[in-house]
């Protein structure tokens, strides 16, 4: 029987512990950043909402534009070095923002340039993180590793919700940005200490960036389960962004008591994500993508409850369910990606996953306001919940989604004999195509995260 003791034994592995600590601290820095940046910018003399919008747009656009390039970089170079560079760039960006705000020299173009550097850093970090986990832990411990990394990240997000606002109030936005910079710097140092053996890259001459992108696209599109779920999430994230970013806060302000009520909903979601980690440590489904896609069906529940006028406690409960489902999906998705995608192209495929899943999110934010004016926020929320339900059920029609099988996980139920050395067969090995599952030309992906 799988036990928590065996799960936690992975933390005795020095390499995984360093990755776990680096990821947890980096996410805490990211959780501090939005509140610190928003209130730091709005606290500047003469700042307006347009000023904040300019800085935030400068941060988000490079993250989208450079995501695919980040995948190429992470597949070409040692991924722990790429992650170190990404966290280091984030540290430079936030130290620069902090210095400008603390000294009072805050030209908007320079603020935007520093924010853009942070966006580029995130575009580099995400694909490298997706690819580094199989280089750190044995193949039969991937799901445990992803669940524990999720536990650290989700705990950091909850802590960030609590601590970031208090830090801004107590010491100001500029110093809070400096705290974010320190966290990113510490994460970079921890990743640098990993000292991984360089992973084997594709043999042959070095290709151009475009050739690498085409190779990653072929890996992505050849796996039906991958592109189907990414297409599902492109619509799901659009609806969720509209509901979470605009419509939900509107209803909370009008009917549920304002910011405190919406904070309760967000806290419920965060608690659900932590609970989902413990379920992810227990579950070993034979059809992980099928179960993961089924779990997306109820993720629109809090939006439906808000839309029909349910009491706050019911909406919070729905948010807990949503958090559990999204976290379980994320662990199953990441583990399947790491098992099924060749290591040499994993970061590029992950970048296509992220780009495809997130590309319509800004459109959801853009449309939410006009739709709320035209129909009212409650009917719009019901529409978002319905859209999530429809695309989730549609994804279940895919044979690739229903048919992909996980390899035998019995080995993961055995107590590990000890830390495997980097480069040993247990670390370098990759399970073959599972019996009964799609072959190398099948499909895989998921970014929900």
From TrEMBL:
This is Putative MFS family arabinose efflux permease. It is found in: Cell membrane. Keywords: Cell membrane, Membrane, Transmembrane, Transmembrane helix. The chain crosses the membrane at residues 20-42, 54-74, 86-105, 111-133, 145-169, 175-196, 225-247, 259-281, 288-306, 312-333, 354-374, 380-397. PROSITE patterns: MFS. It is a multi-pass membrane protein. Coiled coil: none annotated. Signal peptide: none annotated. Its main location: membrane. One of its GO terms (cellular component) is plasma membrane. Residues 406-449 are annotated as: Disordered. GO terms for molecular function: transmembrane transporter activity. Residues 1-199 form the Major facilitator superfamily (MFS) profile domain.
């Amino acid at each position: 029987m799988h036990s928590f003791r065996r799960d936690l034994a992975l933390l005795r592995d020095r390499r995984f512990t360093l990755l776990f600590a680096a990821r947890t601290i980096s996410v805490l820095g990211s959780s501090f950043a939005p509140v610190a940046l928003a209130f730091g910018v709005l606290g500047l003399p003469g700042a307006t909402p347009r000023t904040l919008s300019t800085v935030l747009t400068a941060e988000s656009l490079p993250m989208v534009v450079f995501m695919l390039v980040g995948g190429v970089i992470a597949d070409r170079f040692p991924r722990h070095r790429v992650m170190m560079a990404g966290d280091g760039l984030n540290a430079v960006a936030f130290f620069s923002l902090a210095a400008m705000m603390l000294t009072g020299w805050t030209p908007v173009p320079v603020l935007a340039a520093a924010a853009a550097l942070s966006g580029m850093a995130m575009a580099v970090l995400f694909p490298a993180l997706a690819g580094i986990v199989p280089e750190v832990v044995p193949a039969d411990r991937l799901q445990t590793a992803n669940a524990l990394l999720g536990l650290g990240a989700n705990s950091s997000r909850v802590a960030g919700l609590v601590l970031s606002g208090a830090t801004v109030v107590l010491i100001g936005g500029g110093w809070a940005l400096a705290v974010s910079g320190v966290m990113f710097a510490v994460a970079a140092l921890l990743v640098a200490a990993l000292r991984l053996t360089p992973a084997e890259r594709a043999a042959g001459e070095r290709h151009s960036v475009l050739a690498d992108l085409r190779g990653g696209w072929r890996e992505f599109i050849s796996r039906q389960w991958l592109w189907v779920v990414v297409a599902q999430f492109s619509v799901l994230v659009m609806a969720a962004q509209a509901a979470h970013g605009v419509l939900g806060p509107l209803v909370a302000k009008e009917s549920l008591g304002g910011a405190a009520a919406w904070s309760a909903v967000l806290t419920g979601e965060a608690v659900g994500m932590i609970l989902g980690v413990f379920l992810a440590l227990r579950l070993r489904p034979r059809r992980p993508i099928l179960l993961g896609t089924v779990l997306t069906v109820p993720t629109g529940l809090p939006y439906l409850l808000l839309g029909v006028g349910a009491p706050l406690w019911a909406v919070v409960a729905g948010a807990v369910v949503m958090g559990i489902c999204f976290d379980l999906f994320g662990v199953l998705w990441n583990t399947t990606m790491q098992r099924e995608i060749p290591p040499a192209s994993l970061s590029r495929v992950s970048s296509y996953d992220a780009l495809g899943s997130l590309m319509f999110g800004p459109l959801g934010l853009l449309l939410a306001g006009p739709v709320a004016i035209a129909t009212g926020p409650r009917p719009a929320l019901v529409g978002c919940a319905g859209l999530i339900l429809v695309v989730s059920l549609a994804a279940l029609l895919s044979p690739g989604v229903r048919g992909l099988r996980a390899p035998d996980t019995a080995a993961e139920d055995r107590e590990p004999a000890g830390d495997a050395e980097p480069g040993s067969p247990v670390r370098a090995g990759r399970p073959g195509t599972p019996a009964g599952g799609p072959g190398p030309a099948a499909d895989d992906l998921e970014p929900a995260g």
